[in-house]
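Continuing the batch. This is chain 6 of the set; chains 1 through 5 are on the previous pages. Same settings as before, nothing changed between runs. Recording input and output for traceability.
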Amino acid sequence: MAVPLHCLQVEDSESDAALIVRLLKKAKFQVHGERVESAKDLRAALIRQHWDIIIADFHLPSFDAYKALSVLQETGLDIPFIGISGKMGNEIAAEMMNRGAADYMTKNNLERLVPVVIRELREAETRKNRKIAEAALAAEKERLWTTLCNIGEAVITTDIQGTITLLNPAAEKATRWSTVEATNRSLSEVFKLLNPHTRKPCPNPAKLSLETGDRQESHCPNLLIDRHGVEHMVTYSALPIKGGSNEVIGVILVFRDVTEKEKIGEILRNSNKLKSIGIVASEIAHNFSNFLSSIMGNIELAQEYCRRKNLTKAMERLSLTLNIFNSAKDMTQQLFTLAQGRKPILKAMSIGPILCQSARFVLRGSKIVYEIHLPESLWFCDLDENQMGLVLDNILLNSRKAMPEGGSISIAVENMPAGSPDIPAQISGDVVRVSIFDTGSGIGPERLPCVSDPSFIDKQCLENELELSSVYSVIKQHGGLVVVESQIGKGTTFLLYIPRSKTGLPTKTKS
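Output for chain 6:
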């Protein structure tokens, strides 16, 4: 099948032009040709229609190939230009090529013409497709940049080495770095994150995303230190960028300044704390009033029984009084712990023996089946043995209350090195994690705040969750963190993250 070919010839010889057309037709080209002899005619022909190729005689009476090539280049059109001459020296040929001609040849060597035309048409098509692709890519980049400039989130992109390639305006404002200044710098140099509690550097999110190939998200706000040292509370999400072959080629980091949101949240939390203090004070006064009334009533009855010389009844009343006194003492101890009135007396030790002792003591005589999994070499933690025992007793007692007809409790302890993906962002360094899962009735969403933060204690919490709230306080004093996961009817999991001791050696533990 003939291939259409629009061929423009710069030629003063009609016979020479016809010869070239015959050669091209013989090669299965359907030639649509035109011949011009001057610069004026050449410009008009270039304006009039599209040409696939230009074949120019090197020398015409008032025109030559050099001038014809200049006219073509002035238009900016990408049309292959082939020079032909009766005689052409190497210097002239080299000059033609240097000025931008696609090829050159002599009229007695026209057998090269067809292969050269085929080659130049193929390369012209390749250049055309490349330009279309580049234009499409440029348009896509422009649309992307417009989008990035108009979204509220700050965006930073990096290459495979974690080197910054782009910042959108929101990121420039948050970090105080311009794109020009930040490009080719390491992300950790521009995006400086600190743990808001320990003020220690947080892991580089781009590095973690590149290492794991997974999305990395902040579980809570972190401190971003901008170029001028100003602190911002931010949340972030880092996601690997993948190429056409699904290979990771970089990371996109999206973050949002939540400083104002956190300030508003703090105001609301303080308001809730003030409200809680009033509720707690009222309930404590009411409970201790009941304790005192019961103690006074039993003492008065004991006195009366003593006057009647009924020592048995008197002793019963005094025993009841002692029980009420112990209840008041226990509540006082819980409140002291909750208020962080007594600092823990820390000693480097393993939590394993404390855990095993608490499980045996609290679950003895119940219908609950439990199992404890301890690693052979468990890291030491700096613990107050009595307070940590109270924590574990209270958690297990809560599980026992949730399973009056029996159930199961699974307890696992594991060493977690710093940087492990399961460690919450609030914790830095090595930790020991204690997981306690029960198959009980679960803790409802309205009660979870009482467990995780004592500032939210209300009347119901005071009656039901005071022990669990003390868990939060004790673990916090140990520099750790409590995470509670629960669903009604599906059980509850307590996760205790306790920092590893900087002194002491690992110990082999048996349950």
